[in-house]
Amino acid sequence: MFLIKGELTQIIEDLNSKGLNNLYIDGGVTIQNFLKEDLVDELIISTLPVVLGGGAPLFGELVSPLDFTLKSVTTYLDEIVTTHYLRKR
C-alpha cells in the first residue's frame, strides 16, 4: 500500500500503465472526487451497527446520477453487512 497525489485521471493512467488496475479508496472526500471524475467501476460498502456522526458525506453532490447494479450482499459476525455493486456503463 502507498499514498499518491496529483490529478486523478493522470494518477489512474500512470497506475494502469504499471499493471495496477484495482484501487482501494477510502474516505468521503476521496470517494467524492473519484465519483465526480467518473472513475469508479465498483462499490463495496460495509455497514456496521455504529453511528459515528460528523465527517464528510460518502457521496456528496454529483452532476448526474451514476447507476450501479447489485452483485452481492454478505453478512459477517451477524452484524457487519458488505454490499457489492458494479457500475452500469
Give your account of this protein's structure:
The structure is a single chain. With 89 residues, the protein is an alpha+beta fold. It has a single domain (8-87), classed as Dihydrofolate Reductase, subunit A (3-Layer(aba) Sandwich). 21% of the residues lie in helices and 26% in strands. It has a three-stranded antiparallel beta sheet, with no helix packed on it. It is globular, with a radius of gyration of 15 Å.
Record the SSE blueprint.
Blueprint: H1 8-17, H2 28-36, E1 42-47, E2 68-76, E3 80-87
Antiparallel strand pairs: 1-3, 2-3
Q: What are its keywords?
A:
89 residues, single chain, 3-stranded antiparallel sheet, globular, 2 helices, Dihydrofolate Reductase, subunit A, alpha+beta
Quick description:
The chain is α+β, with helices and mostly antiparallel strands and 89 residues long.
Task: List the secondary-structure elements in sequence, H or E.
Answer: HHEEE
Strand content: 25-35%
CATH homology-level superfamily = Dihydrofolate Reductase, subunit A
The CATH C-level name is Alpha Beta
User: Compute the gyration radius: what is it?
Assistant: 15 Å
Poorly predicted residue ranges: none
CATH arch. level architecture: 3-Layer(aba) Sandwich
Percent helix = 10-25%
What is the average of the pLDDT values?
91
CATH topology: Dihydrofolate Reductase, subunit A
Q: State the strand order across the main sheet.
A: 1-3-2
**Main beta-sheet annotation:** 3 strands, antiparallel
Shape: globular
Integer count of domains:
1
Oligomer class: single chain
Question: In angstroms, what separates the terminal alpha carbons?
Answer: 29 Å
Count of helical stretches? 2
Count of strand segments? 3
Structural class: alpha+beta
